[in-house]
Amino acid sequence: MNEQGLFPDVRIVLVETSHPGNIGAAARAMKNMGVTSLYLVNPGDFPSEQAVYRSVSAADVVENAVVVSNVDEALADCELIIGTSARDRRIPWPMLDPKSCAEKVVAGQASGSKVAILFGRESRGLKNDELHKCHYHVNIPTGEAYSSLNLAMAVQVICYEILQASLQQQVPCDDKAMAEAHDDGRGSAGENWDIKLATAQDMEHLFEHLEKTLIEIEFHDPANPRQLLTRLRRMFNRIRPDQMEVNILRGFLTAINNRVR
């Protein structure tokens, strides 16, 4: 296995991990399955000898981890973002199980997209605004008696399914579900699409521009938002526009801004 592992464009993002041992255990789980890109958002205790100790033979994953101060930095250049969620939300998001999540991830990497899988805090998971940055949410089914998963266990399950999906892709298969997993809305697998998908940073700029414009034309009242911006985020994340489409939308918004002013 090379230093980048089997999935160089797939990153695991751990948000505000409180215990360094969980970072090490997650790194070990990742490397077991060929995933080696680790991003840490504002970790509570890192660098840490305990993280390296718990990683066993995956010390390289820990030592090469990219530490950032916020989620936007971790996702900026990614075109496919999947967030782990343990509970239903007020506004439902496109939901995946671990297997279908892995198929999306493998298909995304095959089409040249950078992929991020977001894991939340040990005690309370991801915040709503962090989940709203995701194209999909993934939930790991558990028994009803005890549904709480350790962070490293959750990482292990998702990374295992990614490896299995990758191995399955190497076997000739006519399964319709597998073909659908490769469809990202740009036709068959999306490999021949003319423009790259918009990155998370592109989308954040679009959402900021859209919000300012909606306020400017008095369509959106920040004091009484009524979930408007959340629903618009969900719509655009579901569509997954490419970079030129985002530029067209922002040009349209700029024309509105100029006309209003």
How would you describe this structure to a colleague?
This protein has helices at about 20-30, 50-55, 60-65, 70-75, 100-110, 130, 150-170, 175-180, 200-215, 230-240, 245-260, and strands at about 10-15, 35-40, 65-70, 80-85, 95, 115-120, 135-140. About 45% of the residues lie in helices and about 10% in strands. Helix 1 (about 20-30) packs parallel to helix 2 (about 50-55), helix 1 runs parallel beside helix 7 (about 150-170) and helix 9 packs parallel to helix 11 (about 245-260). The mean pLDDT is about 90. Helix 1 links the parallel strand 1 and strand 2. Strands 3-2-1-6-4-7-5 form a 7-stranded parallel β-sheet. It has about 260 residues and is of the alpha/beta class. It has 2 domains: about 10-180, Alpha/beta knot (3-Layer(aba) Sandwich); about 200-260, Helicase, Ruva Protein, domain 3 (Orthogonal Bundle).
Please specify the SSE layout and strand pairing.
Elements: E1 10-15, H1 20-32, E2 37-41, H2 49-55, H3 59-63, E3 66-68, H4 71-75, E4 80-84, E5 95-96, H5 98-110, E6 115-119, H6 128-131, E7 136-138, H7 151-169, H8 176-181, H9 200-216, H10 228-239, H11 243-260
Parallel strand pairs: 1-2, 1-6, 2-3, 4-6, 4-7, 5-7
Helix pairs in contact: 1-2, 1-7, 5-7, 9-11
